[in-house]
UniProtKB/TrEMBL annotation:
Superkingdom of the organism of origin: Bacteria
Cofactor(s) needed by this chain: pyridoxal 5'-phosphate
Residue stretches in coiled coil: none
Record-linked Pfam families: Aminotran_1_2
UniProt entry keywords in alphabetical sequence: Pyridoxal phosphate, Transferase
All copies of domain Aminotransferase class I/classII large, residue ranges: 36-372
UniProt keyword Transferase, yes or no: yes
Native source species: Porphyromonas canoris
Name the UniProt record assigns to this protein: Aminotransferase class I/classII large domain-containing protein
Alphabetized Gene3D superfamilies for the sequence: Aspartate Aminotransferase, domain 1, Type I PLP-dependent aspartate aminotransferase-like (Major domain)
């Protein structure tokens, strides 16, 4: 098949994508010459608009290297990398921290590095594509259980527990398309019955905006000792770049020698790791900002009747055409939101995904609620 034929097939299937030409200014985005309130990003804490936080960072951005120019295993390591890992370890109760270029890199490499032919991987059906890619690269046996279904997970454990020495259960703490939380306490409790169980939690959308200290769900629930791998990202609520994995010291030591995305990628630039450390130092003190964000969630839930669990707001459409129309109606009211279609979600799961930010005001969310109600009535 020619590439042009494949492109035509993508267009016919509704899966053809283009990189949009946008300009983001804090909580706003410019598109087609018009300014909209940006509801399509992941700036949950509104850090991109925080000039005071940038001012406190001062001239450090001019003093640090803009590139590492090498893998950390060669010459790409720096005091900034080590300081950020040390601070993450301190905040997360002594867990060993290891930096990655992105959450995708971490999810792509960790399970292949930690599994063998006596390993089974059980993943929630809605885990991120990067996790699925990592599972496939591992070449190990895996099954997917119904989303957030303890009975389905337990049925798989009962069926396969006697056949494997290690079973990884892989979930996200906060799911990026549905905005709901995993039943982490119940999942961790399964370790009492299955000693070979290992828990892998991706907290990409929880770190920063969830928990009393902004450290995500696992720390907030007091489950750090029970979760074997915790993945956090700096590229969403923290408005930086990169990701981190928290684990036991022995696991970290093994990953340094075997995790291919870490070994064969240029390290994060020191200027970026220094900015991440700067933000993380201030994260526990952003209590008022997180409280405001969660008040906005409560307000939107009350005004729209949507069953919201978090600052990720899915407005279900039921078809591609309806999702596109809903997004256009939101834009007409000044809100930039995107339709979510296959393959990101399965057919029938089409929606408009909205992300709330602490940079929004209650008045803006009131207007958003009115718009959502109108859009749902005409869908």
């Amino acid at each position: 098949m020619q590439y042009s034929d494949r492109i035509d097939a993508l267009k016919a299937a509704g899966t053809y994508r283009k990189i949009p030409q946008l300009k983001v200014e804090g909580k706003y985005v410019w598109a087609d010459g018009k300014r909209y309130i940006n509801l399509a990003g992941n700036d949950y804490l509104g850090i991109s608009t925080d000039t005071d936080l940038r001012d406190k960072f001062g001239n450090r951005a001019l003093e640090l290297p803009f590139s590492s120019s090498s893998s950390r295993l060669l010459t790409g390591n720096s005091p900034e990398h080590e300081a950020l890992e040390a601070e993450l370890s301190r905040l997360y109760g002594g867990k060993s921290a290891l930096l990655f270029d992105s959450g995708y890199h971490a999810n792509l490499g960790i399970l292949p590095a930690l599994s063998d032919d006596k390993t089974l991987i059980l993943a929630d059906r809605l885990v991120h594509a990067s996790i699925i890619d990592g599972i496939r690269l591992s070449g190990r046996e895996f099954r997917r259980f119904k989303h957030n279904s303890l009975p389905d997970l337990e049925a798989l454990l009962q069926r396969f527990a006697s056949e494997y020495e290690t079973i990884w259960v892989v979930v996200e703490s906060l799911y990026s398309m549905d905005g709901d939380f995993a039943p982490l306490t119940d999942i961790v409790a399964l370790k009492q019955h299955y000693p070979q169980l290992r828990i892998y939690v991706d907290e990409a959308h929880a770190v920063g905006a969830t928990g009393k200290k902004g450290l995500g769900c696992v720390e907030d629930l007091g489950l750090l000792d029970q979760v074997d791998i915790l993945i956090g990202t700096m590229g969403k609520a923290l408005c930086s770049v990169g990701a981190f994995a928290l684990s036991g010291a022995e696991v970290r030591e093994l990953l340094v020698s075997t995790c291919r995305p870490l070994i064969f990628s240029t390290a994060l630039p020191p200027v970026c790791t220094a900015w991440s450390l700067h933000v993380i130092h201030h994260l526990p003190g952003m209590v008022a900002r997180r409280a405001h964000l969660h008040r906005l969630v409560a307000l939107l839930k009350e005004r729209t009747g949507l069953p919201l669990s978090s600052y990720i707001v899915p407005v279900h459409a039921g078809s591609e055409e309806c999702a596109v129309r809903m997004a256009e109606e939101l834009k007409a009211s000044g809100f930039f939101a995107l339709p979510i279609r296959k393959p990101t979600v399965p057919p029938g799961g089409e929606r408009v995904r909205l992300s709330l930010s602490a940079a929004l005001t209650e008045q803006e969310v009131e207007l958003l609620a009115q718009t959502i109600v109108r859009v749902m009535q005409t869908a």
